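Example (one chain per record):
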Amino acid sequence: MRIDSFKINKSHGTGKFKPSDFRRLGKGVVFEKGVLVFHPENIELGDNVYIGHYAILKGYHKNLMIIGDHTWIGPQSFLHSAGGIRIGKAVGIGPRVIILTSEHEASNRDLPVYFTPLKFAEVVLEDGCDIGAGAIILPGVRIGEGAIIGAGAVVTSDIPPYEIWAGVPARKIGDR
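Predicted structure:
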């Protein structure tokens, strides 16, 4: 493995923010204690959005994180929008949910995975869907309107509207 040229790591900042830092900040948004926000200039929050204690909204220097009206984001959730995130209206995101929009290509065995290029893919959560506590949504996934994702599920593919999926990897267990 070749690791002769190391990247120099640098801080991503403190995560502290002001309301004026956001690309858009709707009315009635609640930020609980300990919320961290990175690159708020690329984050749009609709009206009446709730962001729970110690959640992290990890905006990115490109692509947008858009969160629709009346969405609830649980405590300790981690949303990373390098590839872009679009969350519809009235979406429930349980505690400790992780949404990822990038991954390493890892195709070059001569390099540590950390040094391989990133590939980006947008995640979309359509209106009225619900993501159970501790679920993980992987890059490029679309979760359909009104769908339910069970607690602890790992979602690796698109979920059709009004279906219920659970497990690792997530699989269909019903309809609603």
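Caption: The domain at 35-175 is CATH 2.160.10.10 (UDP N-Acetylglucosamine Acyltransferase; domain 1).
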